[in-house]
Amino acid sequence: MVRLRERPATAARALEFLILNANRTSEVIGARHDEIEGTIWTVPAIRTKMGVPHDVVLCARSSEIVADMSTIGGPYLFGGEKPLSNMAMTMLLRRMGVDDCTVHGFRSGFKDWALNETEFPDELSEEALAHLVGSSVRRAYRRGVALERRRGLMESWERFLSAT
Predict the structure, then answer these.
(1) Model-level pTM?
(2) Quick check: 143 pLDDT over 60?
(3) Which CATH class name applies to 2-163?
(4) Core vs surface per residue 144-153: b (16+ CB within 10 A) or e
């Protein structure tokens, strides 16, 4: 993360944002300014794997990145008038000489950290990853998305990443 933050490229900010929020590449490269309200980014259903909108709680650093990227202009958070290439973050890792992980693998790292290093309930990390949680019966009765509880998880993840 330290080396990544030293790089000024838009792809570096996109990768940092992806790692901080445990998102998929397609969600991040298609991110638009109008999808973000305060500290909540709503990824529209068309860009999610499950085909339903997903609310992402933005930590402080993610919000800083959003503010920094707003100076670029254009509808896309990372790229301006058109989105970044879906290979931009992968190529950045290659240029950095990082060959022991993948962009998508950061999601797995988040999940491992949440399960092994925290006391947060498993459901929170699953919701942060936009995975379906529980059986169809449990989902039918669950109306909330635990945004404030997820905020604590994501702030803890941000602190962990800042320490590495």
Answers:
(1) 0.89
(2) no
(3) mainly alpha
(4) eebeebbbeb
